[in-house]
User: What shape does this take?
Amino acid sequence: MKNEASTERTCPKCGCVYTGVPALSRIDNKTLICPDCGIHEALETLGISLEEQEKIISIIHRNTAE
Assistant: This one.
């Protein structure tokens, strides 16, 4: 049995290949996107600037690196 979290996918939004658990796009509520795009969509909904979004994602990556 394959572990879903280790399945390699390509994000339809940014084109990056990822192996994490996908996020559900807020745009159509059915497209699976990479975790980073999911975070971007969520933060954008809150009105957070792209510059701040990148800082937040950088912090997340730094603190979840294996």
The chain has a mean pLDDT of 90. Residues 13 and 37 are 7 Å apart (CA to CA). Residues 50-64 form the longest helix (15 residues). The radius of gyration is 12 Å.
